[in-house]
Amino acid sequence: MGWPSMCSRVVAVSALAWTAACSSGAGRVLGSLAYGGGSVTLRVGEPVRIAPTGSAAGGAIAFSIEPSLPAGLVLDSSSGELAGIPTAVVGATRFTVQATVGGVAVSASFSLAVGTGLPASVLSLADGFTCVRHTAMVQKAAKMAIAPDGRIFVTELETGWIRVVRPDGTLLALPFATMPVLTGGHLGLLGIALSPDFETDGGVFAYATMPAGGGSLDGGRLLRWRAVGDVGQDEEVLLDDLPISAINNGGALCFDQDGMLLVSVGDVESPALAQSDTSFAGKILRVRPADGGIPADNPDPASLIFAKGLRNTFALARHPSLPALFLADNGPASDDELNLLQPGLNYEWGASGASFGAATGAILRLWPDVVVPTALAFQAPATSLQSPWPPPFDTSLYLTLYDDQVVERFEMSGALATDIDREVEFLRFTDALGNTPVDIARGPAGQLWVLTFDALYRIDRIR
């Protein structure tokens, strides 16, 4: 049986792309309509106005939609414009729009979801994502580490307490561990990391500036505990008497691909020490987590020093699938940096002419103004058990900037993900006191977590 010579009355096209087709032999395309990329994600309380586009946008009439739109939204029957202010959260729902183009009925189905509105402390967030103020922090928070079971271990900068946040948002009253700390400036409980084998060994590591006592001087100290439930036991000191000062103490911790622990130590206000082969100041140390010893494959098998020439590194990160490490270093009044971290290299802060680390480390991004990078985290394509983010968000590098109170997103490519293809603002906090991002991490369920001095935030896609 041949094709009918009359126009088909209804042509259904999914993903918000609608085409009215008339067949007589080869057929004749009357036009198309679209509302973007195939799905619409909104947030409660945010005005929306989406006009149809496409070659037939100006000629389509008599728009209708089924089922009814979420509360606060309407579809203009003459123009097809979707507008309003959604008032309630709605999971992804399929809608069908019908319209008329040149006397021919066309229809399409699309998905629409409404996520929660932004907290008052968040000024803006990329479209398609939602942000929840998960937990209020009682004391000034500094860093966090997320366990595979969803618990979040948070350091309090000035109390010397490590606190546990349960997956439901509860901040436990009993601290996981406590330690005396020196405070003020860049002093305090600075860094935390969990063992790559946390589920079996329960290893929790922290870096703090601590007062003299027990035969030790005022100095930096690397400690380890074994988590028994929500309490740390079997405290051990792995490194002691590391150089400290009022500012520039670093303190970031990160495990590399080989399970060795990286520790950043600031230049303690003495740039020349960052180039000295006999000082740990201004260095990245690489440590055996079992005993604080020197890994045999360090650049110098007799030294903990992994890289040198750094001023004040608050942020270390490992790429989730590539053999690549990254750091963000803070300059004095300019030249904050995002760097590829490689063994034995010199990142050039301080005087020149040192023997160790003759090769120069790669600078990926240099800020001429002070932005104060505090933390790095890679998102990654999720497994079937996790919550995937859409590309390119799923493989981006996220960086917190303390002074600007923003989270930047970097689209990276190249063999070691060192090429910055695009940099764009992802989240911005209001400029209220306390809304200063100090850490960022990817959780086991795929969400991105951001820590400020006074709260913990969970960011996920709207679905």
SS element count, helices? 1
Span from first to last CA? 44 Å
Briefly note the structural class of the backbone: mainly beta
Strand content: over 45%
From the alpha-carbon coordinates, what is the Rg to the nearest angstrom?
27 Å
Report the principal-axis shape: elongated
In percent, how helical is the residue content? under 10%
Low-confidence stretches: 1-29
Work out the number of β strands: 35
Mean of the pLDDT scores?
A: 89
Largest sheet: 5 strands, mixed
Structural commentary:
By secondary structure, the chain is mostly beta strands. The chain is built from one helix and 35 strands. 1% of the residues lie in helices and 46% in strands. Strands 1, 4, 6, 9 and 10 form a five-stranded mixed β-sheet that branches. It has a five-stranded antiparallel β-sheet with strand order 11-32-31-30-29, with no helix packed on it. It is elongated, with a radius of gyration of 27 Å. The two termini are 44 Å apart. Residues 1-29 have low confidence and may be disordered.
Essential attributes:
disordered N terminus, five-stranded antiparallel beta sheet, elongated, single chain, five-stranded mixed beta sheet, mainly beta, 1 helix, 463 residues
Short description:
The protein is built from 1 helix and 35 strands.
Summarize the helices and strands and which ones pair or pack.
Blueprint: E1 10-14, E2 17-22, E3 28-34, E4 39-43, E5 48-50, E6 61-66, E7 73-75, E8 82-84, E9 90-101, E10 104-115, E11 122-125, E12 129-136, E13 141-146, E14 152-156, E15 161-165, E16 177-178, E17 189-194, H1 198-201, E18 203-210, E19 219-228, E20 231-242, E21 253-255, E22 261-265, E23 283-287, E24 305-308, E25 313-318, E26 325-329, E27 336-341, E28 363-367, E29 373-378, E30 397-401, E31 406-413, E32 419-429, E33 437-442, E34 448-452, E35 455-461
Parallel strand pairs: 1-10, 4-10
Antiparallel strand pairs: 2-3, 5-8, 6-9, 7-8, 9-10, 11-32, 12-35, 13-14, 14-15, 15-16, 17-18, 18-19, 19-20, 21-22, 22-23, 23-24, 25-26, 26-27, 27-28, 29-30, 30-31, 31-32, 33-34, 34-35
